[in-house]
TrEMBL record:
Family: Belongs to the PhoH family.
Name of the protein this chain belongs to: PhoH-like protein
A Gene Ontology cellular-component term: cytosol
Keywords: ATP-binding, Cytoplasm, Nucleotide-binding
Keyword GTP-binding annotated: no
Molecular function GO terms recorded: ATP binding
Major subcellular site: cytoplasm
Residue ranges that the Swiss-Prot or TrEMBL entry lists as coiled coil: none
PANTHER family: PHOH-LIKE PROTEIN (PTHR30473:SF1), PROTEIN PHOH (PTHR30473)
Length: 369
């Protein structure tokens, strides 16, 4: 059994760390099945040694964020626990601060910092996703809704723009369906496509002050447009994000990917299980990932239901639908196998009937073949 005692110098931050009525510590107790006791600015952790180490890592991570001026919520506590578990299982290799000072020897998980907020990876996959955006020029982020694929991509783009690493942000998604059939909708083009691009606007306003977003939109430094508007362009010195990419056709995806210019990054997000294309039409996202899987400089990060960072029910809902899809796929395979076996049996019976009914000379000639 493990026994760890932690002490925090800043009483005000310790109060924020523990949460109202020690709710953050209670959350760690609940998730890790250990005992966490607070006395003043000290915390005692009791339980299996590996779980105590995970609790310590989670608390250290949260305390460092409070020292940096961040505000932590329950979702951050849950994220810190998940990241500590992932680090303990070596699913991620967080950076270790080696320089002198209070932070020496403590682990740091992947972060994205914009002028308005700082985002810390809440799951091992988010950590891998952020690091992939750092090192690759073309990244595919795929998986269910609520995992942070688009939100983190927009945050990363905003951070690069603020640091002057890129000159533009271009955000796009297929409007309505893959064919972008907008003619029947009322209003001009902006009014037609804005409802489908609203999630991208929302993410931008979370990362940057509203007045700055409006200025950058007016100056075309930030551009939000339907996929069809990308045709014929070369997108240089930019972060280019394609959202809902599962609803692109093969030709649309090829058109988009070949827009990549110098000093640009392209981030493609989508959920291959939610394709809205007409029946028989292959998703451009699925095809692109298959065709480009052997190119080392292109990175794919696959999110799962375990990475959902919305309400806990969302993860359960995604799991339920995934299990239903899995069972249906098994049933289809079994049905197909049964049909194949039935066809073979029918052919054997037909051949047997032919042999029995054929004249002797025909039977002989068939045997000679």
């Amino acid at each position: 059994m493990g026994h760890i005692v932690l002490s925090y110098d800043d009483n005000r931050l310790a109060v924020d760390l523990f949460g109202e009525y020690d709710q953050n510590l209670a959350r760690i107790e609940q998730k890790l099945k250990i005992e966490v006791i607070a006395r003043g600015n000290r915390v005692t952790i009791k339980g299996p040694s590996d779980l105590c180490d995970q609790a310590k890592m989670a608390l250290d991570s949260l305390y460092r964020r409070l020292q940096d001026g961040e505000v932590i919520a329950q979702a951050d506590v849950d994220g810190a626990i998940r990241m500590a578990q992932a680090a303990d299982e070596q699913l991620i290799l967080p950076e270790m601060e080696t320089e002198g000072g209070e932070g020496a020897g403590k682990m740091h998980f992947a972060q994205i910092a914009t002028r308005k907020k700082k985002l810390t990876a809440r799951t091992a996959t988010q950590d891998a996703y952020i690091r992939a955006m750092d090192r690759a020029d073309l990244i595919f982020g795929t998986g269910p809704a609520g995992t942070g694929k688009t939100y983190l991509a927009v945050a990363y783009a905003a951070a690069l723009l603020e640091r002057g690493i890129v000159e533009r942000i271009i955000l796009s998604r297929p409007a309505v369906e893959a064919g972008e059939r907008l003619g029947f909708l009322p209003g001009d083009m902006k009014e037609k496509v804005d409802p489908y691009l609203r999630p991208l606007y929302d993410a931008l306003y979370d990362m940057m002050p509203p007045d700055k977003v409006e200025r950058e939109l007016d100056a075309k430094v930030i551009e939000i447009a339907p996929l069809a508007f990308m045709r014929g362009r070369t997108l240089s010195n930019a972060v280019v994000i394609l959202d809902e990419a599962q609803n692109t056709t093969s030709m649309q995806m090829k058109m988009f990917l070949t827009r990549l210019g110098e000093n640009s990054k392209m981030i493609v997000t989508g959920d291959p299980s939610q394709v809205d294309l007409p029946k028989g039409e292959q998703s451009g996202l699925v095809q692109a990932m298959e065709l480009l899987s052997d190119i080392p400089s292109i990175v794919r990060v696959q999110f799962t239901a375990e990475d959902v960072v919305r309400h806990e029910l969302v993860m359960r809902i995604v799991n339920a639908y995934d299990e239903d899809s899995r069972q249906k796929a098994i049933a289809r395979r079994m049905l197909g196998r049964g049909s194949s076996q039935n066809i073979q049996a029918e052919e054997q019976i037909a051949n047997l009937k032919f042999e029995q009914s054929a004249p002797p000379d025909v039977q002989a000639s068939e045997a000679d073949l």
